[in-house]
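WARN  no MSA supplied for this record, continuing single-sequence
INFO  ligand: adenosine-5'-[phenylalaninyl-phosphate]
INFO  echoing inputs
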Amino acid sequence: MDELREEALSALRDASDADAIERWRVEWLGRADGRVTSLLRSVREQPQEQRASFGANANALKQSLESALAARQEELRRVQLEALTTTSALDVTLPGRPQELGRLHPVTQTLRDCIRAFEEMGFRVAEGPEVEWEKYNFDGVRIPQDHPARDMWDTIWVDKLVDGRRQMLLRTHTSPNQVRVMERMEPPIRVIVPGKCYRQEATDATHEWMLTQIEGLAVDEGIRMSDLKGVLYEFARKLFGADRKIIFHHSYFPFVEPGVEMALDCFICRGSDPSCATCHGTGWIEILGAGMVHPEIIDNAGYGSDRYTGFAFGIGIERVALLRWGIEDIRHFYANDLRFLSQF
Ligand code: FA5
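INFO  complex generated
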C-alpha cells in the first residue's frame, strides 16, 4: 500500500490541469472501479486474520489520497489565479465598480415636501389633466375668448379642431382644477392639485416652458383673506424656516378678488444689484399667485356666494426649489446634467 500511495501521489503531482486531476480522481478514487475503491472491495477476499488491518490500511490510503486531491486542487486554483493576474490585462483582484443608486429629481423632492406641508394643514390631494379644455383653463376661471388676460399665459394649443376651432390645450396653470374640484365636491373644501403646466415662454433664469404648480383651494363659510395669509405663512415657514423674509404684493388674476403675489427675498443680491438675473433688482422672487375666489366662480359652482367664500393659490414649485437651495438658474432643472442633479 505504501507503494501504491507513492505511485498515486507522484501521478497527482504530474497532473497539471483540471482535466488531468479529474482523470486521476477517476483512476484512483472513482466509485465504479477506482483502484483504491477496488482495493477496499477486496477486503473480503483477504485471509481472515489480515482483513482488519488490510481494511484499516486501505481506508487510511483512501483518506490520504482524498486530502492530497483537495490540496492539489487548491494549489492549482492559486497558480491559475496568479497566472491570470500577471499575464492578463484584467485584474480580478480589483474591487468591483459600485452600482450608482438613483434618487428623486430635486423638483420632485420639493413638490413632495410642499404637498406634505399642506397635508399637515388638512389639505387633500386631487389631480387633473395636463391636456385641458379651454373652457376649464380659461372660460371657467373668468377669462373668456378675446379677454386680454389670456395674454398672461402664452398658450400651447393642441392642433385639433373641435366644432371648427381649437379648444384643447396644454394647461397653462393648475387653476382649471378650481372649477373641476368644485364640480365634484361640496363645501367644506380643502384641496391641493399638484401638476405640470406648459407655456410658450421665452426662458430665462426664472422662467421655463414647462413648470410645476400646486393649486390650492379652500371653500367654506366664513373664509377670509387672513386665513389665506395664515396658510401661506405657515407653508413658507415649513419650507424655508422662520427667518426668511416674505412679502405680499397686490396683483391681478381674473379668478380672484382681491389678488396677491407672494415673494421671498432674493438670496443672490438681496436687492442690491439692479442687473441681478434672478430678481431683476427688485430684491424679491415671486413664488405664487393667490387671492379670494371670485364670487362669480362660487356662484357658478352652485354654492351661493352669499353663504360661501374661499381662497385659492398657485405655487411655482421650481421657484421654491430655486430659493431653497440657492440655485441661480431654473434651466438647470431640466437640462438633464447629472453633475447638477446628483447634488440633491
Ligand atoms: C398663475 O398661474 C395663477 N394660476 C396662480 C393663481 C392661482 C393666482 C390661484 C390666484 C389664485 P402665474 O402665471 O403668476 O399665476 O404663475 C404662478 C406661479 O408659477 C408664479 O408665481 C411662479 O412661481 C410660477 N411660474 C409662472 N411662470 C413660470 C415659468 N415660466 N417658469 C417657472 N415658474 C413659473
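The chain has two domains: 2-87, 106-341.
INFO  checksum written, moving to next record
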